[in-house]
Amino acid sequence: MKIEKLQFLSNEILDELLKIWEKSVRSSHHFLNEEDIEYFKPLIRNQYFPAVKLYIIRNKVGQITSFMGVSDDMLEMLFVLPEDQGRGYGKALVNYAINQCNILKVDVNEDNRQACQFYFRMGYEIIGRDEFDPTGKPFPILHLQQFKF
To answer: What per-residue confidence (pLDDT) applies to 50?
Structure first.
């Protein structure tokens, strides 16, 4: 599978990524209510996407099926369409982040059990915890780091 770095963020690409984000969040972030999702959508699209380097994987028909965003030393976001989970897209993106970008840290919502289990299987370990997310909402965040290079 090919991992592609996005060089330009058109409105069309931003909208496609936001749809993937929303579908993934609705299937895994059961601790969020509708008001929370609507709160985060414009932040994700207009602030968070432009603030990171974005990498995507497309399916056989060219549709984006998964993406990750990285900063200097963090895997900031990783989302896979629910219908495409279990196909190795997330694992491929994490391995790329580790091996090509030297990104060893990730934060994850503690209440997102699916994501926590995924990162633990990938060899991440808890190095810290915050009671609130970066926006001040009461969604505990686990700070994880990969120690197995």
So the answer is: 95
Interatomic CA distance for residues 132 and 144, integer angstroms: 16
Q: How far apart are CA 3 and CA 142, in angstroms?
A: 27
Beta pairing partners, 64: 58
Distance from C-alpha of 86 to C-alpha of 80, rounded to nearest angstrom: 9
The pTM assigned to this predicted structure is 0.93
Beta pairing class for 53-58 and 105-109: unpaired
Block residue for tokens 């895994």: 28
- DSSP code of residue 148: -
DSSP 40-72: HHHHIIIIIGGGSEEEEEE-TTS-EEEEEEE-S
Measured at the CA of 142, the angle between CA 24 and CA 69, to 5 degrees, comes to: 45
Dist CA 60 CA 65 (whole Å): 10
Tokens of 95: 């391995």
> What's the CA gap between 120 and 26, in Å, rounded?
22
Structure tokens at 24: 């993934």
β pairing state of 53-58 and 3-5: antiparallel
pLDDT confidence tier of residue 149, bands split at 50, 70 and 90: low
